[in-house]
Write a structure and sequence with these properties.
- The complex is a heterodimer of chains A (99) and B (502).
- With 99 residues, chain A is mainly alpha-helical.
- Chain A has three helices and three strands.
- In chain A, helix 1 crosses helix 2 (22-45).
- Classes of the chains: A mainly alpha (99), B alpha+beta (502).
- At the A-B interface, strand 1, helix 3 and strand 3 of A face strand 2, helix 2, strand 8 and strand 9 of B.
- Strand 1 of chain A pairs parallel with strand 2 of chain B, so a sheet runs across the interface.
């Protein structure tokens, strides 16, 4: 049985840059518990002979040749940006972190 | 904002502590296109002109892996004596930062394409150190930010930032060493020698431009100290923004002296990212590192696994060229060099350049002389590495050829080389532009000879009287009159002819 704590929900919310209220912390902790329990059931059914699956299609080595294809113009690229300046995307100042 | 850190004297540091290094080198591959889309992979360009829905992370866009980049990754792994994964996947590394428009970086997590290798590194005195390689994995580069406002264009005090995504999605190979221990006082030198060896290797394989100044080769240096006799590694810091080979050595050394002062004072090291400051050789605190868990890695659902067949890997193994250290060994034998001569060539970074110049047609002696002397001086005065000078071995060979054929004097040749270094084009273009050809037109030379003889009749008489060595003064006058653009030997012949002493 999983048991997600309020602190863990708060930490996840921070990583996901989501504002979560105090009440929501409890709600989401309970919901995440249920989701994890449901997923854990799969583990009960799958035997040791079943490898973990990440892809539904049994494909490998799908590659592209190294050839330039047309992309977007600067205007097209910036068309959806809330703010742009000097041909670049303008973003609010970056606080508290350095690259 | 920078507070001066307490530092311990280096000799004391290595007496009391053992350094442990871990080096992460990021290499931008020189493929034609990006890792997961067909946008051009080229340095520079107008901002946001090498972009498409995939590398901008627009909804619904699907990545497709660049096959050539995978081949380069496997070749790099093989050259580093790594095992190649029989099956591996890409993973999403989730974090928010404006230089990454998708809000995750497509990388590899616990299934790198290459792992468990080594690189033998030769130190300045010829000692060989084996650096074990943990892994080499594939990922993509981020965009570039420009911080606006504030005094220095730095992130602190900036009012906002501007993003150019031309570099976002450029294929990147991250090569990670295992902990490098037991190096003692030579740790900083080992770090530089390792990155140098890696750069030479990647250059020989032609998989990357490996320009540290342009960021196509970047090194993050993890440094920790443990007290002599201790068994557990200390807490490490990761120094980024190390943009030259020399800086690698300086950054490691600085962090060692900084850690030691804190530890000796009873303090503890904070695990954090630090930024190397080129100007004063110090480091400044950056962000506290997120843990691997915080990145919530999971297998990339949009890319299927990569499963290189044995045949494919063996085909790629066959394409690996003669590696720099093998080449050096062969060159030493071919050129009959002493260990010391070889080391001088290697330490100035000249050996591969000399070899390439010889391959382009120059004699070994001429090629060595140009690179080790004049060009090495130029590199020093231009504060760059020999290999980063903007002249190619083929261009040097051309200059040597022109000297050999008498079209350039040594003095003119140096001016031609200066022109090439200044960006005026090929040697022939520089000669054309700057009018540097030797005056080989005898009639023009004869006029200058006659003038010089007339100006110094006593010297002319001496020559006539059999004192042939007196011709030197006339040669000098003619060279001066032609601004050094005459072939001194030819001038001498003409003088002797003219006074009838020939």
């Amino acid at each position: 049985m999983s048991n997600i704590s309020r602190d863990e929900v708060a930490h996840l919310a921070k990583l996901a840059r989501m504002a979560v209220t105090e009440e929501e912390l409890d709600t989401f902790a309970g919901q995440l518990d249920q989701i994890l329990d449901a997923v854990a059931k799969v583990g009960e059914v799958a035997g040791d002979d079943i490898p973990p699956t990440s892809h539904a299609a049994a494909l490998t080595n799908v590659f592209r040749t190294d050839e330039v294809r047309p992309g977007l113009s600067q205007d097209e690229a910036l068309a959806g940006a809330p703010a742009a300046e000097e041909g670049r995307f303008r973003v609010p100042r970056i606080l508290g972190e350095q690259q | 904002m920078t507070t001066t850190a307490e530092l311990m004297d280096y000799a004391e540091v290595v007496e009391r502590y053992d350094p442990v290094l871990g080096l992460e080198v990021h290499v931008e591959l020189s493929t034609d296109t990006k890792m997961f889309c067909g946008c051009p992979n080229s340095f520079g360009g107008d901002p946001n002109t090498h972009v498409c829905p995939v590398c901008l992370g627009l909804p619904g866009a699907l990545p497709v892996v660049n096959g050539t980049a995978v081949e380069s990754a496997i070749r790099i792994g093989l050259a580093l004596n790594c095992d190649i994964a029989e099956w591996c996947r890409f993973a999403r590394k989730n974090y928010f930062y404006p230089d990454m428009p998708k809000n995750f970086q497509t990388s590899q997590y616990d299934e790198p394409i290459a792992f468990d290798g080594h690189l033998d590194v030769v130190l300045d005195d010829g000692e060989v150190v084996r650096v074990d390689i943990e892994r080499a994995h594939m990922e993509e580069d981020t965009g570039k930010s420009l911080h606006v406002g504030g005094a220095t264009g730095r992130i602190h005090g900036a009012e906002h930032s501007l993003l150019d995504y031309n570099r976002a999605g450029v294929p990147l190979i991250e090569i990670v060493t295992k902990p490098i221990t037991g190096m003692g006082e030579r740790a900083p030198e080992v770090a530089r020698a390792y990155v140098t060896a890696l750069r030479d290797l990647l250059r020989a394989m032609d998989v990357s431009d490996v320009r540290m100044d342009q960021g196509s080769l970047r090194c993050d240096a993890n440094v920790s100290l443990m007290a002599k006799g201790a068994n557990e590694f200390g807490t490490r810091t990761e120094t980024k923004n190390v943009n030259s080979l020399r800086s690698v050595e300086r950054a490691v050394r600085y962090e060692m002296t900084r850690h030691a002062a804190i530890l000796a004072d009873g303090g503890s090291i904070k695990q954090e990212t630090r930024h190397f400051q080129e100007a004063d050789g110090t480091t400044a605190a950056g962000r506290t590192k997120e843990t691997a868990e915080d990145y919530r890695y999971f297998p990339e659902p949009d890319l299927v696994p990569i499963a290189p067949t044995c045949e494919w890997v063996e085909q790629l193994r066959a394409t690996i060229p003669e590696l720099p250290w093998q080449r050096r060994k062969r060159i030493q034998e071919d050129w009959d060099l002493t260990d010391e001569e070889l080391r001088d060539l290697v330490n100035t970074g000249a050996i591969d350049l000399v070899a390439a110049t010889v391959d382009a047609g120059a004699t070994q002696a001429d090629a060595r002389s140009w690179w080790v002397q004049y060009l090495n001086q130029q590199a020093t005065s231009r504060e760059t590495e020999l290999a980063d000078l903007t002249i190619t071995p083929a261009q040097v060979a051309r200059v040597i050829e022109l000297v050999g054929s008498g079209e350039l004097t040594n003095k003119l040749a140096r001016q031609v080389v200066d022109g090439v270094l200044d960006g005026d084009g090929d040697p022939d273009q520089v000669i054309e532009k700057r009018g540097l050809k030797v005056v080989s037109d005898d009639s023009a030379l004869l006029a200058a000879v006659d003038e010089a003889l007339a100006a110094q009749p006593d010297v002319a008489d001496k020559i006539r009287g059999g004192k042939v060595q007196a011709a030197g003064a006339i040669v000098g006058a003619v060279m001066k009159a032609t601004k050094g653009q005459a072939d001194a030997a030819r001038v001498r012949e003409l003088i002797l002819e003219r006074v009838g002493a020939a």
